[in-house]
Amino acid sequence: MKRLMYSGAGLLVLLLAFFAFNMATTVLFPSARLDLTEQKLYTLSDGTKQVLAELDSPIDLYFFFSDSASKDLTVLRNYQRRVEEMLKEYERRADGKIRLHIIDPEPFSEAEDRAAEFGLQAIPLSDGGESLYFGLAGTNELAQREVIPFFALEQEGMLEYELSRLVSTLAKPDKPQVGLISGLPVDGGMNPYTQQPDAPWMSLEQVRQVFDVKPLAEDIDSIPDDIDVLLLIHPKALSEAALYAIDQFVLRGGKLLAYVDPFAEADQGMEAMIEGMADGKASDLGPLLQAWGVAYDPTKVVVDAQQGMAVGRGPGQRPARHIGWLEVEAAQINSEDTITAPLQLLTYATGGALVPVEGSETQFTPLMQSTALSALVPSEAFSALRDPEDLLKGFTPDDNVYTLAARLQGPAKTAYPQGMEGHEPGLTQSDNINVVVIADTDMLTDRMWTQVRDLFGQRIAQPWAENAGLLVNALDNLSGSDALISVRSRGDFSRPFTVVEELQRKAESRFRASEERLQQRLAETDQKLAQLQQGQDPTQLTELTAEQRDTIQSFLDEKVAIRKQLRDVRYQLNADIDALGTKLKWLNTAAVPALLTLGVLFWWLLGRIRRKR
């Protein structure tokens, strides 16, 4: 047997056995999968399984991909295989309720005409007119259509969510109604600085994929009955009648998602553009939050030394840490609440704090919090802020953990016990309200969570944080649909290098004092040089006395020495990170192969010992 195994015939037998095993497993276990990725990106989520299990009527999916036109596009073809495999998994899981059609729209064919009829996006590949289709169209029994015009590589992380959203929309074509009151240009508009039109915010565009958004006026005196969820974004100009209407809407069981802000950087209104008017950028909900058991100060901003973002200063300058712009990671995000459980990274810019009122019957559940290295500062500090690191000068944390977003549930009383003049007597209390409040609006702007690209007329979002996921999750949950929540936040977002960021924070705190002292010495030296040379004609430098020349030269030498010390300090900022990189490189190039070699030698030695015995 041993001679057979080591002979050529034996190797052939092993090869045939290998192929037979693969063929048998393909036939007997066609759905067997092993997903070893950390986020299980190749395994359907529970939300997708729920969407597929709830299908009542068949859905047809038409997957268009130009096979011949893409023969040289290896990366795109790999992505196409992933999309096709996932669609086939949807078809298998749907138990006959999804019919998948894979179509190659060759040029001048009926298939190409059908792709164009569905509205799919053809991407031109050459000047000769050759184009590529890579999209999906779906129809239901009511002949309603949903389309993904083109599967962009940049959105690979959102693939399952987009597919599940399309299927869910076709299964339940009546979208939930969201009433929107906004004091910010979320739908685009004219930029007062550039005098150019701005595109709608990508976060709102993603909301419109799932919900029917109905804009409402800021002076509205009643919320329509067909509104499932009321969305408030920077409600700083609400009339008293509108506040009373919101109060009554919530008490009668209406769901509310409110984004307020003590310093909305996106607010470009006339009063907010006046220098120093921080209160012009603030929004509040009047007496409503207090009635729901929440204290909120619209003049105070949360700063956090641990969660502060690194922001660019410009070419040739090291990044600055902005402790008013926070990167809130999983440790500070509620993992128990359905809205935030799947989220890993959120950003929060010059936002406020929500504090539960002692003795309130309404349940206050934090969804997102700061760390203990935080404090509250007046919003005026951000009105004329030029260098973000100015916030670190003299900063002392107050050891409090501040709530940045919260869910309010349970009994609540009206904020207007006397009613409203001109209105019929309203509700005075409710046994169970359901409100989500987030004390920041800038987190919805594109710059705080995504990069937006234009791909042949189609705006593509490349998210690096999950701010839009928080918005859509909250609306999904409040409108009664949780199925898509677990799908949405499985995307391929940028994962923070937590060890590296911690090293950066420690290095900055260690060397910041030295850098500031050297910068001050450099400024003093420059000032003394300027005083010595003031009024001195550069062509008359030869008339200076030897003592004056020596003094100027000593100051110049000191300036060079200080600049060298500054370079050394800034080099030390990254020394620990460079050392970590060197260790990782050594582990990858030497340690791992050495361990594998030792393992093979140990296995060989163990075999020899056994054979001798």
TrEMBL record:
- The portions of this protein that span the membrane are 586-606
By its UniProt entry, which InterPro entries does this protein fall under? ABC_transp_unknown (IPR019196), DUF7088 (IPR055396)
A Pfam family assignment? DUF7088
Task: Enumerate the UniProt keywords alphabetically.
Answer: Membrane, Transmembrane, Transmembrane helix
- Ranges where the ABC-type uncharacterised transport system domain occurs: 175-474
Report which superkingdom the organism of origin falls in.
Bacteria
- Provide the DUF7088 domain boundaries: 38-138
Q: Which residues form a coiled coil?
A: none
Q: What name goes with this protein?
A: ABC transporter
Q: Which organism is it from?
A: Halopseudomonas oceani
